[in-house]
Design a protein that fits this description.
globular; single chain; 6 domains; D-amino Acid Aminotransferase, Chain A, domain 1; 8-stranded antiparallel β-barrel; about 675 residues; 17 helices; about 30% helix; Rossmann fold; alpha+beta; Dna Ligase, domain 1; 9-stranded antiparallel beta sheet
């Protein structure tokens, strides 16, 4: 067995590998760039080596820098994580020359499967069904348009060496094919150092289902069930689950056997994933094979009980798998929600900054048998950088079937509660969106495709409007918070003259533009809340002034609510709902209705930067007339290019910044007449 493993990666996956290595008694070495000098994976490892400046193409994907770290520390094995050099055959070959074990598949398998063009051809030869497309290299945008037209729109433009949604575009017409080809090449070169592009037919209404494979160096290859990864935006997975709510046993077996056959055809060992697109009739088509550990591997670990990182290490050291295909059992249901540093209210654009608050829910087994797991590489007070992927954490839930509730619904409900308890401040993040998906009827039914976000949130995510029942619950919570604030004030002010301050019982709660009148009375269970229609509820909570999160029991329902006092308002966040609530006496509520509404400033003649990033290009000149939909500028952040377009016809009055400038959110890029 290895004595010391170097992790050629960063963030949560580096921390994940360190945890298993520590469990196995193996020392670890972290590598870090300038931006990661104080990162969590650096402090967790036994040793740490600086490998260069912040940009990954000057640090994490520079092979010689990693080799130097290996020589300096005497590591005898390297785990590449995912991304960066994990599917780089040249890196694996360099390790072999150094006499250092690569904790991954053989070089030949990486070369065959890591190149998506080659892998498609090999899959066809192995009898695996594949998506129609052009597998040859494409010289330029004109050829890309011609090929796309011949295949028939829509098409998927993809980086041959890509992964994780990088270098990938969907084109529905010639213009999108031309622009998508260039953007994909740019992203692929920046992320992988390889700008080769191919095009294939885009299957509409698809489900993205992948098979986890695991093999040893003695000829055994197994499949460990499947994962459904259909909740995606911009081809980046957001929510994954295992098993899939769509597959039946026969389809699962057929997909698993094809994945194993393909793996054996290229002499594969270690952990890997064979990805498929599945249509509504359960016809499945080979998409690609990832010759590495997947981001979403925890859900497979939770339903199988198999530590994939441990198995990768044991396989790399030459051990045989200690179990066979018949030993692999799928138990319960697991869901993974990816917490991203992205602002869902700004079309999920990247967000950077300091984590002024980072409090994930407690990990471990709960009283009802649910398992909570949070894989992360950050900490409170840490910085989210613009140089790397925006993923902050992976919140995972496993649940068994509970008292007649199917395991999947039990897992969804447990995930909803865990998201309610997850506190993140200081950056834009997608927690509200994740909560909204968990409550969505279509998701809960399992009727999902990769188009879920586009179809259910066509105009973007604007938060969740509370329904009548939720509004009442939040009104009750707001009243309890208000009462606690008033009680603290009474303790401070005490009596004024001969008069002791008295807290009223009648209040008007203004929430989502509606007024809810409530009357409060004490009771054995906490507080008795009477509504104007005669409804009576019992409520209790553990919030005290200064807390940012508290648990409430409202009419028998447990609610984990995030609370922040904003002037005279109370900001409440729960299940994707984000409301500023006012609790006023009836007289003050009457006066508040007479107050004029503040109008937002007019920014219609300005192009504002929607996220922090680097301005990589400006496509228009001052004085130029532009049309609606025309590209104006491109901003790059977190390894993704974002093209900003004109909303309407107009004339450019002024370009305020130059190409190469680092921009903040809402910084003016150009002004229109």
């Amino acid at each position: 067995m290895f004595k010391k493993i170097l992790i050629a990666n960063r963030g949560e996956i580096a921390c994940r590998v360190i945890k298993t290595a520590r469990k196995m008694g193996i020392a670890t070495v972290a590598v870090y760039s300038d931006a990661d000098a104080e990162a969590l994976h650096v402090t967790m490892a036994d040793e740490a080596v600086h490998i260069g400046p912040a940009p990954s193409n000057q640090s994490y994907i520079v092979i010689e820098n990693i080799l130097d770290a290996i020589r300096r520390t005497g590591a005898d094995a390297v785990h590449p994580g995912y991304g960066f050099l994990s599917e780089n055959a040249t890196f694996a070959e360099a390790l072999e020359k150094e006499g250092v074990a690569f904790i991954g598949p053989p070089v030949g398998a990486i070369q065959a499967m890591g190149d998506k063009i080659t892998s498609k051809k090999l899959a066809q030869e192995a009898g695996v069904s594949t998506v129609p497309g052009h597998m040859g290299l494409i010289a330029d945008a004109d050829e890309a348009v011609a090929i796309a037209s011949s295949i028939g729109y829509p098409v998927m433009i993809k980086a041959s060496a890509g992964g994780g949604g990088k270098g990938m575009r969907i084109a529905w017409n010639d213009m999108e094919a031309r622009e998508g080809f260039q953007s994909s090449k740019n992203e692929a070169k920046a992320s992988f150092g390889d700008d080769r592009i191919f095009i294939e037919k885009f299957v509409t209404q698809p489900r993205h289902i992948e098979i986890q494979v695991l093999g040893d160096q003695h000829g055994t290859v197994l499949y460990l069930g499947e994962r459904e990864c259909s909740i995606q935006r911009r081809n980046q997975k957001v929510i994954e689950e295992a098993p899939s709510p769509f597959l039946d046993a026969a389809t699962r077996k057929a997909m698993g056997e094809q994945a194993v056959a393909l793996s054996k055809a290229v002499g594969y060992f270690s952990a890997g994933t064979v990805e498929f697109i599945v249509d509504g009739d359960r016809n499945f088509y080979f998409l690609e094979m990832n010759t590495r550990l997947q981001v979403e591997h925890p859900v497979t670990e939770l339903i199988t009980g198999i530590d994939l990182v441990e198995q990768m290490i044991r396989v790399a050291s030459g051990e045989k798998l200690s179990f066979g295909q018949d030993d692999v059992k799928l138990n319960g249901w697991a869901i993974e929600s990816r917490l991203y540093a992205e602002d869902p209210y700004r079309n999920f654009l990247p967000s950077i900054g300091r984590l002024s608050r980072y409090r994930p829910p407690a990990e471990g087994v709960t009283s009802d048998g649910t398992i909570v797991r949070n894989d992360t590489g950050v900490f409170e007070g840490g910085e989210i950088s613009m140089y790397y992927d925006p993923m902050v954490a992976k919140l995972c839930i496993w649940a068994p079937e509970k008292e007649g509730t199917p395991a999947r619904l039990a897992a969804i409900d447990a995930m909803s509660a865990a998201l309610d308890d997850f506190e993140v401040e200081g950056i834009g993040h997608n927690l509200p969106f994740l909560s909204a998906v968990m409550q969505h009827d279509r998701f809960r039914s399992g009727n999902i495709t990769t188009a879920f976000i586009a179809e259910e949130f066509p105009d973007g995510f604007h938060g969740v409007e509370p329904d009548a029942a939720s509004a009442v619950k939040l009104a009750v919570v707001a009243t309890l918070v208000h009462q606690a604030v008033q009680a603290r004030a009474v303790q401070i002010s005490g009596t004024i003259g001969n008069h002791r301050r008295v807290i009223g019982k009648d209040w008007v709660v203004t929430l989502a533009g509606q007024d809810v009148a409530v009357t409060l009375d004490a009771c054995a269970e906490g507080t008795l809340v009477k509504l104007a229609d005669g409804t009576v509820l019992t409520a209790a909570g553990d919030w005290t002034p200064g807390q940012s999160h508290a648990t409430f029991l409202v009419d028998g329902a447990v609610m984990g609510v995030k609370i922040y006092l904003v002037g005279t308002a109370i900001r409440l966040r729960w299940r994707g709902i984000d409301q500023r609530v006012h609790v006023r006496s009836p007289r003050v509520a009457d006066l508040a209705r007479l107050m004029p509404k503040k109008r937002p400033p007019d920014t219609s003649k300005l192009l504002l930067c929607p996220m922090p990033g680097v301005l990589t290009s400006i496509s228009v000149l001052e004085g130029e007339t532009v049309e609606a939909g025309q590209a104006l500028a491109t901003v790059e952040a977190m390894k993704m290019e974002n093209t900003l377009r004109a909303e309407r016809r107009g004339t450019v009055k002024r370009v305020a910044v130059e190409t190469g400038a680092s921009l903040a959110v809402d910084e003016v890029i150009m002004e229109f007449e």
